[in-house]
Amino acid sequence: MSAAPPLTGALLDPLGKGGLVGRLDPRTRVIAAVLFAVAAVSAQGLTAQGALLGLAAGLAGLARLPLGQTLRRLAALEGFMLAALFTLPFTVPGTPVATFLGWDASAEGLMRAASVALVATSVMLAVQALLGSLEAVALGHALERLRAPRRLVTLLLFTLRYIEVLHQEYARLRLAMRARAFRPRTGWHTWRAYGWLVGMLLVMSVERSERIHAAMRLRGFRGHYPALDHPRPSGLDWGFGAIHLSALVLFLALGMA
Questions:
Q1: What span, in angstroms and rounded, lies between the C-alpha atoms of 56 and 125?
Q2: pLDDT in tens for each of the 257 residues of the chain?
């Protein structure tokens, strides 16, 4: 029997949808995402922040992110921040440039709103490009190899695993309710049925988690997931890291000029 292949970019992205980014080591992608976020928050001036947005768009192109899904996620982010972005021009003091319903919008407020929008958009786009196609298990193992606290990594992996367990239990209980001709309506019977659904979901999930935990201990589980592979960064990782870091330093210097 042949040995299992390591968790490389080719295995994590067998169809090649991750492009160049999908072939990078998970640790490289995590470090690149963290460095980009730090640089975006630290950048001064709309020029540097716009350049970082361009870099994030380049990363999205290298990762071959689907255009429609990416735009929908960015639109959801902008919609979430719309209230803050709309109020900033009227709450930040400065030189008035327009009046709306008796409120003066300042140039400094408009620049602040544009700055917040650029930073948030660039960080989200870069994180999607670098970590969006990375499997949860690979992300956890990458964090552990980067010396992240082992308990935190184990908690992350367990949380992701049991979210799926809860979803499976919920789907099974909902199917049982539909098989008994349950139809949601506005009434006490519906709310009582949903209350029983939540209670049964919690009870059955706890029982299932106890069975899984007992099975894991029986198989020698000692509080963390062991990593069976120990890949080393390739020349592609070092080259990408050097170019990525150089671009970040250049854009930060551009903001300070």
A1: 6
A2: 334 334 333 333 433 456 788 888 889 999 999 999 999 998 888 888 899 999 999 999 898 888 888 888 888 888 888 877 887 887 777 777 777 777 777 888 888 888 888 999 999 999 999 988 888 888 888 888 888 888 888 888 888 777 877 888 888 888 888 888 878 777 787 888 888 888 888 888 788 778 887 888 887 777 666 666 667 888 888 999 999 999 999 988 887 76
What SS3 class is residue 180? coil
User: What is the number of other CB atoms lying within 10 angstroms of the CB of residue 28?
Assistant: 21
pTM: 0.73
Which parts of the chain fold into alpha helices (H)?
9-12, 26-42, 46-63, 67-91, 107-131, 136-145, 150-179, 188-218, 235-256
The length of the chain is 257
Helix axes 136-145, 150-179, angle to 10 degrees: 170
Radius of gyration of the chain (CA): 24
Please give the C-alpha separations between residue 188 and each of 101, 130, 180, 194, 199, in angstroms, as whole numbers: 46, 48, 18, 10, 16
Q: At 232, phi and psi to the nearest 5?
A: -110, 150
